[in-house]
């Protein structure tokens, strides 16, 4: 009955002659969380940016099942269609919250303007929904009029999550969502993310170099090396019984830390 949400076919990206990622193939199902792991320079961000149409790949296709059930190659959308998709159906959580927030408008406006972008014009409803979302990401209601400049790193990241989830996206892209945060803050943020993703039934693609993040958040994972996916499977299987020597190394070196 159900169909995948995303279908990726032979996705390849070169920067000039340098390989970003090559021959990536996978499907993502509604509600499924996929982690992309690998060492620095393995092509994770290149792949994620290609999947979210932030980058134009050199070859290959990414097919997305739109809300009207039409399958579309996201690289063939018009700019207006792409922008609509980004605003309504997709979220993008950046590693650096400043890249995903407007730092000089209030926290409430950061969340509320997303609702306005999808056509909500009722001020009372916008404010109420923004407050509700601040609560869901554990930001106190009395901070609603403060600018994210005055927030801690963890609070900014939680605000970025609220801003992205308020419109009810079906798919969220995340690049190192807990990078750059203190370990204790990371753990709380991960718990929060896991709760929200599960509760909302979101599909997500999470780039991380941290296998603990993959373990906690994802159902499936792909391991990248030198731009290629060298191993993929259910997260528990890959982490507990890695087949590729490189994955074994990755898993054991992390465990020894
Ligand atoms: N804008 C760019 N121009 C040229 N080469 C690039 C560009 N962005 C990435 N690359 C190259 O593509 C390859 C993959 O880089 P990418 O940033 O996707 O890796 P990553 O896995 O996200 O690494 P990290 O964990 O450090 O973020 C690397 O060799 C990198 O040098
Ligand atoms: Mg990266």
From TrEMBL:
GO terms for molecular function: ATP binding; ATP hydrolysis activity; lyase activity. One of its GO terms (biological process) is organic phosphonate catabolic process. PROSITE patterns: ABC_TRANSPORTER_1, ABC_TRANSPORTER_2. SUPFAM superfamilies: P-loop containing nucleoside triphosphate hydrolases (SSF52540). Gene3D superfamilies: P-loop containing nucleotide triphosphate hydrolases. Keywords: ATP-binding, Lyase, Nucleotide-binding. Residues 6-251 form the ABC transporter domain. The keyword Lyase applies. The keyword Hydrolase does not apply. Pfam families: ABC_tran. InterPro entries: AAA+_ATPase, ABC_transporter-like_ATP-bd, ABC_transporter-like_CS, P-loop_NTPase, PhnK. Belongs to the ABC transporter superfamily. This is Phosphonate C-P lyase system protein PhnK. It comes from Devosia epidermidihirudinis.
